[in-house]
Amino acid sequence: MPFRRLSVLPRTLGARPSRLLSGVVFGYSMLAFAPSASAQASRIAMPTGESELRDSVALFTTDRAALLRRWTVEYSPARRERLHAFYTDWRARLRRVDFGRLGQEGRIDYVLLDHRLRAELAKLERERTLAADMAPRVPFASVITGFEEARRRFDAVDAPAAGRALARLAADADSLTKVVRAKRADTATRAERIVALRTVSWLGDLQTTMRNWHRFYGGYDPTFTWWTADPYRRANEAITKYARAMREEVVGQREGMEEPIIGDPIGAQGLAEDLEAEMIAYTPAELIALAEREFAWIEAEQKKAAREMGHGDDWRAALEAVKQAYVPPGEQPELVRRLAREAVAFVTERNLVTVPPLADEIWRMEMMSPRQQLVSPFFLGGEIIQVAYPTDSMAHDDKLMSLRGNNPHFSKATVHHELIPGHHLQGYMTARYATHRSAFNTPFWTEGWALWWEMLLWDQGFATTPQDRMGMLFWRSHRLARIIFSLKVHLGEMTPQEAIDMLVDRVGHERANAEAEVRRSFNGSYSPLYQAAYMLGGLQLRALHTELVGAGRMSNQQFHDAILRGGRVPIEMVRARLLGTPLTRDYRANWKFIQ
Known about the structure:
Largest sheet: 2 strands, antiparallel
Number of domains: 3
Distance between the termini: 53 Å
Structural class: mainly alpha
Strand order of the largest sheet: 1-2
Helix content: 55-70%
Low-confidence stretches: 1-41
Oligomer: single chain
Radius of gyration: 27 Å
Order of helices and strands: HEHEHHHHHHHHHHHHEHEHHHHHHHHHHH
């Protein structure tokens, strides 16, 4: 059935056409910054007005979510084709918009939606390549995909044919298992291990799909159950054995072992595509050089703090002393409460950002379980801050590592990152303003915002002791290391083990925490640039802050409030909102934010 075409701009353009001709409504309303006209001319106007494309972006988001609920089978060619048609159709609909009649907010949404559509089409092509790499290892994938997609089309099931297909699938999986078991595990190349790890994950998804398909008919259709019960059981067991063989003989993970850190590098082309999608107009080499430059500043500050602490230039000894200054078990919640109150008082007394009373009222605290701390040994946050600290069931060494890694001086730099003015305030505001722009969410805005506050509060004197400065510098060096190892691993210029060594030797991480960090970065669900986005987003906001607040064109409060009310968008588009940057229909990122 062809995709039903809708109006490009439901309600917005048709309902209020006169607004498109008004420079007042969709331009900028000047606030009374200074008494003189010349002073006002140098100031930046606060963005006001509503985007004409707000409803269209919301419609795209809702329709896409609906399609993804319908087309659920990963790596399915039919799913890929359907999404390609959806994104292509939306690009065509967008091109029919009269760009010249849009106000600045509408133009920003136009650019961002077109940008998002191009990025999604590029991801589909990358998925096609990944599927082709795995296809020889999963020749029966089309059988399981066909079962589920026929069910989704409400086709009548042919139970005898399904039973025969399941029996063949089981035999194929058994044959593949024998081939894999016949190989020596230590002969697998890194490339083979990368594809194998991805394949093991896909096999799990296919088993879930097959289970859902069989559960739909089993027990309701007696004929289906009669023909498929035993072949389904054997097929499921055969896939389980095959996945275990792949994991043990190719990936290199035996029973009871920690999953090896392998990752899935996307290469230079993939990084270029992802940087373009995030509106970062730099090459990986330029960003690595930026991180190294920032590292030099941090190392000088670490030595300065170490000297104040009586350790000379030995910043490692100073860092060790900071790690040892943990609070006793049971007292961490009170420390977090105190640090949270300190941060709120600091930013409000200095008029750095507006903190709605309700936002300060509703945040909560929960303690992490030992299992959670294996993956996330530090704080997680938002409206609920999740606190990592030892429990009585943890091994002694794990308890000590948690105490050391969550000491008061490290925590002083993370509590405000997670709560106010960081992620909690951010989430509170974006749930209430420009909500349609969740379609353009990017870690460069989300994580960059919280990281930027670490920089600004440093400049504002939030760290009052050399120990607090050491704690803040630790986290900044951690985020710089993420830029370097994220980009280099995906370029094939660094191994995961070298990334671990870097975190231990250059940042000062405990080795177990460094391993957890790198494993989470490359074996988890993070996008390739996610970990690099913390510091890079923060550096983008620092450059914009210098351009506007540093030049006296906005106050801190106006700057931060405008960012929060503008929604989740790439920082280059934050800049376009605040500066009124001229935008074109085919706008591409070009902002050089490196200072």
